[in-house]
């Protein structure tokens, strides 16, 4: 059954949502958020407005990277990939001045790390963290903070970290809303990265007002064949403005029907575990990819190389320049990756790196947690 | 798993496919095709080109009616509905002049029957019959014939009848191709009526060159809840030209993304047996329905009445004027139908009739068959 979550408090952005910007450039991002020790805040289950207290003194969360804009499923379907993503460490820290959640450091993102602000009010992880605190009704002044640029996945990790440190009261729907609040401030009002980062697997965003999404359950592996993504990342800064400007404002009816049918085929392939069908649908976009491909040097040759090496399909991941190919065999996945890297050099004169990743079926989760020591309670 | 059929011999029509025209106005259509007694044609399994001989002296086939243009799935997804459709009776008749397959009579289609030609070369059933004969490599001159206008489902019935009378050698893919040949000559090159009519259930047309379609398996009934279609047909001749002209040539990107996501949601709902989700997606078209609805008097009020009566969703069936609503309860289905009929009178000043139908999961099939008497064979 489809899992649908409704939240009526959202407002739809009035402008057309911008494309997703997630580019998996490095293996992990560690954001450290600190908040004031909240153990003094009383928790009461009898009042309508319950303010929870932290149950851990620190947590470390992980959110998997995502691949959005999946071919014909531009702007409404994304999936999470295993073994790559962002980490957020959150600590209860009595030294922190109330009203602040300073971000102590950001690391592991290579060149892009320099661009990430540590200002919690502007950093994507900070914005998501604050949104979760508001949802949890944590009123302590120290819990205001916030957000940044590329790495929206840190928002998912931060949302989960804050929720878990306070006992995990929120639903995934709430966490997606928190991530969406972050994404809307940083890159645009779309949830096709943050939803799969939080929930894992494939997630179809059905509507924003109310927010409603469907988790598409990819079947368990059959006959040792697994869905594998080959992610090839060229050393090339995608011209974001051009990538956005390349999107057509109007779509011919014929292309609309074609892409719609391919999107339907992709959804069917996911639900039925049809890897070849998934690859085929992924490769079939006639609207976005043809316009963005010329902006990625060598893209056409790289896609051709992927297909010739046996990939079931290949397209741009997110807004590029990373390309994603699909296969069912790890050895072949590495071969496809090698051919794509070579082709990036041959046709685009770009260095590139490849990795082969599985579908992440879990989504954002805690990796470490440190429990609070129990205080002796006075019996009434 | 998705079932995909490939046929590389097809050519894509160069113009944008016209909308589907099937309007379920009456319960059945009987076409009688006659062909020459073929028992004298020798059958040889040893030659490369095998010409089969008929194994029945007569057959009666049935093809279920279909609902196409399912909301956001305009022009690429249709389904078959049970207990309503077309019949074709086919007889081996030595009296018929070689080179002809006369259609003896067409009945049961009310006013529209007058418009259906008995000329087998122009009648949809005739064209499909001829296409099947060609595929079967039946070279007898008598087997050239047939086709007509509205009722494309007769083409499906005819294709199955001819195939079965010769022993059923063709695949469903071939039969769909035969139906498609008929449809392309009569109303346009699209298979979202003829494919579900032949295969039953929901069929997504993925491409035409090569022809490729995916049968979306709707799960068996759960907890006695079944997918029910409420079909409400007003006494109103839909202005076909206006219906076609109402289609936009260009789609705003925002509407394209919306409809694509709803199409994906509809496919997911079908595969997961999520009746509410199916209804919701059905109701969510922002491209075709808003433009065609004003051409059907009272449509807006009728849809509203359906939803208020508890329908999960409601949209135009095919190109109209029939409306289709979805529910999971037969009693409620009748109630929804009554409210829709009343609303057609109230808001559109139109008489209308309603019926509640289940999904046809089988597709076109033989209803009757009469076996040939075996001739005594001389032993060599």
Tally of DSSP helical segments of chain A:
10
Name the poorly predicted regions of chain A: 1-48, 141-150
Helix-strand makeup class of chain A? alpha+beta
Largest sheet of chain A: 7 strands, mixed
H/E element order of chain A:
EEEEHHHHEEEHEHHHHEEHEE
Helix content of chain A: 25-40%
Which word captures the global form of chain A? globular
**Biggest chain pair contact, residues each?**
A-B, 44 and 44 residues
Q: What's the CATH topology label of the largest domain in chain A?
A: Ribosomal Protein S5, domain 2
Please indicate the percent range of residues of chain A in DSSP E strands (runs of 2 or more): 15-25%
Any idea of the CATH class of the largest domain in chain A?
Answer: Alpha Beta
CATH architecture of the largest domain in chain A: 2-Layer Sandwich
Q: What is the end-to-end distance of chain A?
A: 47 Å
What is the arithmetic mean of pLDDT of chain A? 79
Provide the gyration radius of chain A in Å: 21 Å
How many structural domains of chain A?
2
Task: Give structural notes.
- Two copies of one chain form a homodimer.
- Chain A is an alpha+beta fold.
- Chain A folds into two domains: 30-218 and 362-371, Ribosomal Protein S5, domain 2; 228-358, GHMP kinase, C-terminal domain (Alpha-Beta Plaits).
- In chain A, 30% of the residues lie in helices and 24% in strands.
- In chain A, the strands form two sheets. In chain A, strands 1, 2, 3, 4, 5, 6 and 12 form a seven-stranded mixed beta sheet that branches. Chain A has a four-stranded antiparallel beta sheet with strand order 9-10-7-11, sandwiched between helices.
- In chain A, a hairpin with a 2-residue loop joins strand 2 and strand 3.
- Strand 8 of chain A pairs antiparallel with strand 8 of chain B, so a sheet runs across the interface.
